Amino acid sequence: MSVTAPRGFRAAGVVAGLKDSGTRDLALVVNDGPSRAAAAVFTRNRVKAAPVLWSEQVLRGGRVRAVVLNSGGANACTGAPGFQDTHATAEKAAELLVDSAGEIAVCSTGLIGERLPMDALLPGMDKAVADLSRGDGGLAAADAIRTTDTVAKISFRQGEGGYMIGAMAKGAGMLAPSLATMLCVVTTDADLPAETLDRALRAATRVTFDRLDSDGCMSTNDTVLLMASGATGVVPAEDEFTALLTEVCADLNRQLLVDAEGASKAITIEVVGAASEDDAVTVGRSIARNNLLKCAVHGEDPNWGRVLSAIGTTDAVFEPDQLNVAINGIWVCRNGSFGDDRDKVDMRPRDVTITADLSAGPHSATVWTSDLTADYVHENSAYST
Amino acid sequence: MSVTAPRGFRAAGVVAGLKDSGTRDLALVVNDGPSRAAAAVFTRNRVKAAPVLWSEQVLRGGRVRAVVLNSGGANACTGAPGFQDTHATAEKAAELLVDSAGEIAVCSTGLIGERLPMDALLPGMDKAVADLSRGDGGLAAADAIRTTDTVAKISFRQGEGGYMIGAMAKGAGMLAPSLATMLCVVTTDADLPAETLDRALRAATRVTFDRLDSDGCMSTNDTVLLMASGATGVVPAEDEFTALLTEVCADLNRQLLVDAEGASKAITIEVVGAASEDDAVTVGRSIARNNLLKCAVHGEDPNWGRVLSAIGTTDAVFEPDQLNVAINGIWVCRNGSFGDDRDKVDMRPRDVTITADLSAGPHSATVWTSDLTADYVHENSAYST
């Protein structure tokens, strides 16, 4: 299952010894073809980890034979030696697969600013190649890329004509910004060229991972990679493929949201009545990043004033006295002032929906975030020590 | 002392009954002249509280006879009725002082979205006017504007020729953005016209309150008001006055920083080597708003990778491999990679200084923030309930 649900893929997840915990920390996903078409989106952070700089180059060719992923170290801010480590990792995979390093993507996640223990990682590669399988490999790979994730995240769907899309992800964030590094590998046995995969992936991530904003922080390592084996020979219509891919990404997105570090609430922010989709996203992000509101949701306090305050910091089109806000369906703010009784809002469910109506047009967008908790503080104040 | 340190001012702080705690919640500062020249800066949030909308109009005239300040309610997002409440407050003060409501400024702080209990506030005004004094009034007023502030914040300085600047402040934030509403009243017995006061105040707040970024949230109520009585007849040089005013604002800024909600660390972020001052401020704010970094500082973890990650999200001029970062004087990151041993960094003091060198030019700026703690979460998840 997971990335090995589609035909033409093998995967493995092994213990290379990168993590002190002694759990799986090295994953490998291999595309046995016949196609090797691939596309990817990367973090927009200008400080990019070595594996991102490497994989960006690989993806320029539109072909990927395999991807190596490690947890236990981000290999970010490690200078030229760190880039050499990524290069050596790709070379090792290429050697074992008797292929070209130029078609080996690399992803890393973990602490920034430390070299990877290559004396553990390279021998781990031998183990990973030996373990490659279609059966358990997909789940083992999904397990190996976890850092603070409490569960492995996988998804798969079948498309028209019998092709499959499979995927695994780790992290509790998004492409930009992100709570922690988000890595995602999506595979398919449909037969589509790299350009189509690229368009489909950008369309799917734009409305899913790109709108999951756990804590406003953007990782140096975020990567979403899509690989097509073409093993079924099915050539789906681009629209149909994009819709199915978006479904898979939305499924993983939900899993990331629910497992966000320290979160006790999954918050869905629907912005409606916007003059443009950009305005809706801008307002949604501003609400999602408001620490005071995130604390209020944690305390099960329907504090709509903090929603208005967050909207007010944006340059979106709206009039303050025409803003409406609903929390879990109760319109607690109408026309910029108090509306229905806030005591009617049931804040107890894990899922909290905030609807902000800008009364400025027909556009809308949804952004997801989680609450700000003492557990989040605890987890992130003790991470590297 | 406080706002009554300069001649020509009386003040009071009384219990009007706006706060459940039964502590002081209504302050009044009166300028007895001979001058009434005044200037102010307000929140840049587009959702502005009624007292901000009112006071902006008052300040257009450049003259302020008195300012009424209340804690126990922000009077924000209260619609036309809320604006009427502010108007009635100014009218009541004008009536008691036998003056014009058009020269009465109003400031409010507390929960957003609820009407003020005017049946308590208006009788409180009688009490405040009866209590006006030069002696204890300044401290009582500073006490009355507190919300979550654990201590009253006051400052005063003497200028050349014997004039004074006095001030009081509340909040743990800044003009934009802000942890909670920041209110500040500054008084002087120097004789300067409104235009000069305006320039001086903008210059002073630009490098002090405007660069204190507790939690990235911008209040609907922030106000800094400067009133001149001219009672000494001293006309200071604009440069000298601006420098002294900046000193007073910096002193209060430091008090706000140290008393920020739930904070255990006071973080000074110095950005140097920037291509422009704007770049330096942009980078400083991005670092100051990074929740992951703020958690790391709380955990006394010199996690410089999170500093680089925050810098990377900006559009400032820099090359990733030329960034240097020092934490408490130890250059833990050189040329975008690890530098001196992070174990050398002593994170135990309450004050933590992060220096980010962009290696891109001669400009610099300082931004202040505090750490993110479980206490912050606790305080803000229980605020309105």
From TrEMBL, chains A, B:
One of its GO terms (molecular function) is L-glutamate N-acetyltransferase activity, acting on acetyl-L-ornithine as donor. Its EC number is 2.3.1.35, 2.3.1.1. The active site is at T181 (nucleophile). Pathway: Amino-acid biosynthesis; L-arginine biosynthesis; N(2)-acetyl-L-ornithine from L-glutamate: step 1/4; Amino-acid biosynthesis; L-arginine biosynthesis; L-ornithine and N-acetyl-L-glutamate from L-glutamate and N(2)-acetyl-L-ornithine (cyclic): step 1/1. The record marks T109, G110 as: Involved in the stabilization of negative charge on the oxyanion by the formation of the oxyanion hole. InterPro entries: Arg_biosynth_ArgJ, ArgJ-like_dom_sf, ArgJ_beta_C. Substrate binds at T147, K170, T181, E261, N380, T385. SUPFAM superfamilies: DmpA/ArgJ-like. Keywords: Acyltransferase, Amino-acid biosynthesis, Arginine biosynthesis, Autocatalytic cleavage, Cytoplasm, Multifunctional enzyme, Transferase. Gene3D superfamilies: arginine biosynthesis bifunctional protein suprefamily, ArgJ beta chain, C-terminal domain, L-amino peptidase D-ALA esterase/amidase. Belongs to the ArgJ family. Catalyzes two activities which are involved in the cyclic version of arginine biosynthesis: the synthesis of N-acetylglutamate from glutamate and acetyl-CoA as the acetyl donor, and of ornithine by transacetylation between N(2)-acetylornithine and glutamate. Heterotetramer of two alpha and two beta chains. This is Arginine biosynthesis bifunctional protein ArgJ. It comes from Actinomadura violacea. The lineage of its organism: Bacteria, Bacillati, Actinomycetota, Actinomycetes, Streptosporangiales.
